[in-house]
Design brief:
The complex is a heterodimer of chains A (about 140) and B (about 230). Chain A is mainly alpha-helical and about 140 residues long. Chain A is elongated. Chain A has four helices and no strands. Chain B has about 230 residues and is mainly α. The radius of gyration of chain B is 24 Å and the shape is elongated. The chains are: A mainly alpha (about 140), B mainly alpha (about 230). The interface between A and B is large, with 67 and 69 residues.
Amino acid sequence: MSNLEYDPHRYPGKLDQHEDHAPGDEPLEDSGHWVRNANLGLGFSIILTVAAFLLAGSHVIYGPSIPVALIVLAIAQMGVHLVFFLHITTGPDNTNNVLALAFGILVVFLIGAGSIWIMDHLNHNMMPMEQMMQMQP
Amino acid sequence: MTDIGLPASVEAIRRVREDPHRLGHRPHGPDEPVEGTGQGGTGPAHKRILVGYGFWIFLLSDIVVFSCFFAAFAVQRDAIAGGPTIAQIVDIRRVGFETAALLLSSYTCMLSFAATNVRNLLWTQVFLVLTGLLGLVFVLLELQEFVELIGRGITPQRSGMLTSFFGLVGLHGLHVTAGGVWLATMMAQVQVKGFRREIVHRLICFNLFWHALDIVWIGIFTIVYLLGSGA
């Protein structure tokens, strides 16, 4: 049997525990385990989503802090999705997945923060619109 | 390695102590002793890992694409060129329904994979259908939003903000649509071919794709809609 065709899930309890696992995959478990994970993920997501939507139009907390609170809630919910839906864990069988994720987050951060930073400086250094209008013949 | 030639069992115990999780030390079958060196001697990982991991890399690169659209929107947010502001085009109630539909579809998608894992054809298909229908609700709501906006003369070419808005939200909508087509294909494959190994691998990938879309949507409803609506 070539290694590529070998499927550890067909030999429960033997070697599966020692294998790497792709995201969204786990050592063989009964369906109750998956359903429990799904329920937990849905529960946390509903709490965080409802909190975000309520917060957006409210005056419960200090106004200028609402954007920060919304972003924190969003990051928390992405974490919930990663853990409960994508099964990213801190376990040794997930090292590769976590490393790839960390690199992805780094690139996303560089693109997002870098664009905002650079474009903000460009805006700052641009001639105000009124002056630009006056320069036109 | 020593010249003395320790008994194989002692050798095995030593290896397990040094590296308890034995990553990369894969046997070629269930009954073969673990002998790999962890340096490729036992060949590549099996397909269940390779396929899932490869797709994970693709998803991360897809999220990088989305991050470019997010950055464009963040930069263009105030470039309204005398047109409507983002606060004027956001309908929070509809976004709430869209979010609910997509979150529930993520949930049913995972339930279908739970059924896949115990090789239950009926429940796999039932939950896949539910996932598809909820995805369809999401796409239709988004289409309704776009049609309404364009009816009011709010088109992508009106301002830089609207270009990036339609680009970002539309790209996500296209992903969900493509996911729906993939989902229909998977349902047909599961029905005809059953839970063959490669079919299960494709279902793993589909699940990853669908959950990743939900993660991107979290970013969109927070950064575009909620932050745009008031704050």
